[in-house]
Design brief:
Number of strands: 17
Distance between the termini: 36 Å
Strand content: over 45%
Order of helices and strands: EEEEEEEEEEEEEEEEE
Shape: globular
Largest sheet: 11 strands, parallel
Helix content: under 10%
């Protein structure tokens, strides 16, 4: 913006009503068929809109809406913001880490400064699964978000750097042996988790 040396791209619903602008993809249960895939995306912002994957079911791939993947291009995404975005799909009961609404692959790359604020996650097996690999220096922030009708909320795996989960609300999570609000694994860096309900 202005005289900045960095170009930014912003996708914003004009009415500032997240339900008025819907990016819908009838992907069904096909693998690697996301509504949006971030691959080497830098300085991209999504605001006040809905990303919806329709026609999913309890199949393996029925929920992925937004996917971060720097593996094939060897180019991680950096400085991406999602604010007042609704991520929606059908609830997925079967346990599989590729059934989250927002997913990130084990790519060995560092997705830098990825921020979600005031977002709504509805459906999927998990709302959010960040599946980094050991050695990545990701910076991830999820604040003031709402999760409903999922079986799990936020899973953060194998991250070496700081992440923040704060002031998020979890309601109507399904009941299985794999239901959780927050799940952590192999996190060697500092992190902040506070004021989630």
């Amino acid at each position: 913006p202005g005289n900045s040396a960095t170009n930014t791209i912003t996708f914003r619903g004009q009415s500032l009503d997240s339900s008025a602008v819907i990016i819908r993809w009838p992907a069904g249960i096909v693998a690697n068929n996301y509504v949006v895939q971030m691959e080497g995306a830098d300085h991209v912002t999504f605001e006040h809109l809905t990303m919806h994957r329709s026609n999913g079911n309890n199949g393996t791939w029925g929920a992925q809406v937004l996917h971060f993947n720097g593996f094939s291009s060897s180019d991680p995404s950096q400085n991406c913001t999602f604010s007042h975005v609704r991520f929606m799909a059908n609830p997925i009961q079967n346990v599989n880490y590729w059934r989250g609404l927002v997913t990130e692959t084990t790519s060995g790359l560092s997705e830098q400064n990825i921020t979600f604020s005031f977002c709504h996650f509805q459906g999927g097996h998990e709302a959010f699964r960040w599946n980094s690999s050991t050695g990545q220096d990701d910076f991830l922030t999820i604040t003031d978000c709402y999760t409903t009708q999922s079986y799990g909320a936020f899973a953060v795996l194998a991250m070496d750097d700081h992440f923040t989960l704060a002031r998020n609300t979890f309601e109507n999570l399904g009941s299985t042996s794999y239901t959780f609000a927050v799940s952590l694994s192999y996190n060697t860096g500092g992190f902040l988790i506070e004021d989630n309900i």
